[in-house]
User: What shape does this take?
Amino acid sequence: MALRINLRYLERDDLTLKGELPVAELDLDLRDEMIRPEKPLVYELLIQKLDDNLLVRGRLFLPIACECVRCLKAFEYELDLPEWTCLLPLAGEEKVTITSDSVDLTPFLREDILLELPQHPLCKPECGGLKKPTPERPKSSSLRRTEPSAWAELNKLKVRNE
Ligand SMILES: [Zn+2]
Assistant: This one.
């Protein structure tokens, strides 16, 4: 069940496609253990035929189970492409394959989703990695900083008393 566009429908009108595509259909072939797309791709697309081109625009959304490369925490990365656009030529050298009046969108979705996958998934941008015991700041340093002012205060008092 790939995502196909039937060109016959487009002869009269624009076409809206809404739904979910099982992620297995995308055949992402990931070898990265940190990134595991398991949930379906959610799409909402408007397809228009403009002369010899198909213009596909819309939103792609794919939740991906990830593991943070720094702290190994599992989290869900949301791949969200709210303004995905794809122009598919129906004629010329670059033209797309048309099988029984329909064009398979799946390869184009796959290509763009692969480009958008996180290269080094992080649970949060500032993730500091696995928690190491942070060495406590030596307290003497903060004391030393207040010392001069304390002496200064004392000196002021002395001056006033004299
Ligand atoms: Zn992390």
